[in-house]
Design brief:
alpha/beta; 2,3-Dihydroxybiphenyl 1,2-Dioxygenase, domain 1; 4-stranded mixed beta sheet; 2 helices; VOC family protein
Length: 121
């Protein structure tokens, strides 16, 4: 249903470096630069980082990225730790969602809740 999403960030370069690290285990990479905006994806341009228009405290956004397997969720988590991300939840099963929901949650440089999730056993 979604074609792309854009999130406002205070420092495009810092946020791009974060997403370079945490999306690499998921197969994601920088795809395009359009002015000050940077896109990421495996194919296409589903995630865009755009400069914040004001510096009011933003509302938290939650973005969950698909991982091929549990090892990929673990690699996402390790990459986030390596760049100093705040860990919200280490990788684990979340049976309250469903029996094979395996996810890890971290904060990006702007405080957004970023997740990698695998729905396989």
């Amino acid at each position: 249903m979604l074609d792309h999403i854009a999130i406002q960030v205070n420092d495009v370069a810092a946020s791009a470096a974060f997403y370079d690290a945490v999306l690499a285990p998921l197969g994601g990479e920088r795809k395009k630069r359009f002015g000050a905006n940077i896109s990421f994806g495996v194919t296409g341009h589903p995630l865009w980082l755009v400069p914040a228009q004001d510096f009011e405290p933003p509302r938290e956004v939650h973005i969950a990225f698909t991982a091929a397997d549990r090892a990929t969720v673990d690699a996402f988590h390790a990459a986030a730790l390596a760049v100093g991300a705040e860990v919200l939840h280490a990788p684990r099963l979340w049976p309250e969602y469903h029996d094979s929901y395996y996810g890890a949650f971290v904060r990006d440089p702007d405080g957004n809740n970023i997740e990698a999730v695998c729905h396989c056993a």
